[in-house]
Every structure is written in structure tokens, then in C-alpha cells.
């Protein structure tokens, strides 16, 4: 699911050589929607705020933390759709 949206890292490895991981491709509109949802939610939505703050406090770059939150939000949305449930803030 995350590779369709374009937030899954691809490895550039060959033999014993380990290359860098990069994120490229995917559908722009869902990726942009997830990005804006995380930007809005990382300050107000407790679930994303805890994840984002934990990653930033562990010295991850802010963009990396945002992409991790995007992936987590995508997983939650996918699970809700799969189970035909409605999201409720508790």
C-alpha cells in the first residue's frame, strides 16, 4: 500500500555493496493529502503527536518523522477501510 502512494523506501543494493534508501514515485494526490493531514495532525491529534515527538527526540530529521507519520496514518486508514469501521477519537 505504501509503495503505491510513494512513501516506501527502495533499496539500491548490489552484491555486498549497500546503497542508500530513497523514496520515489507513487501517486502524487494521495501522498500530498497524507502530507497535509500529518502537518495538521502532528500538533493536534494525540496519536500522531506522540509518534512525531518520539522520532524527533531520537534525533531523526523532521522530514523523516513526517514520512513515518504518513505511513502510520496510511496503515490506520487502510485497516479502518478493510474492517469497514469509522474512526472515533477517544
Describe, in plain words, how this protein is organized in 3D:
It contains 4 helices and 2 strands. The longest helix has 22 residues, at 62-83. 61% of the residues lie in helices and 4% in strands. The protein has helices spanning 2-5, 28-44, 46-57, 62-83, and strands spanning 10-11, 21-22. With 90 residues, the chain is mainly α. It starts with a helix and ends in a 7-residue tail after the last helix. Helix 3 packs antiparallel against helix 4.
DSSP strand (E) fraction? under 5%
Number of helices: 4
Largest sheet: 2 strands, antiparallel
Order of helices and strands: HEEHHH
Helical percentage = 55-70%
Q: In total, how many beta strands? A: 2
Short description:
By secondary structure, the protein is mainly α. The chain contains 4 helices and 2 strands.
Q: What secondary-structure arrangement, pairings included, does this model have?
A:
Elements: H1 2-5, E1 10-11, E2 21-22, H2 28-44, H3 46-57, H4 62-83
Antiparallel strand pairs: 1-2
Helix pairs in contact: 2-3, 2-4, 3-4
Amino acid at each position: 500500500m505504501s509503495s503505491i502512494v510513494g512513501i516506501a523506501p527502495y533499496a539500491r543494493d548490489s552484491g555486498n555493496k549497500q546503497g542508500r534508501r530513497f523514496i520515489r514515485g507513487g501517486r502524487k494526490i494521495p501522498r500530498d493529502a497524507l502530507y497535509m493531514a500529518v502537518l495538521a495532525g502532528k500538533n493536534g491529534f494525540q496519536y500522531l503527536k506522540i509518534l512525531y515527538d518520539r522520532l524527533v527526540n531520537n534525533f531523526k530529521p523532521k522530514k523523516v518523522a513526517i514520512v513515518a507519520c504518513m505511513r502510520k496514518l496510511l496503515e490506520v486508514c487502510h485497516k479502518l477501510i478493510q474492517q469497514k469501521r469509522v474512526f472515533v477519537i477517544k
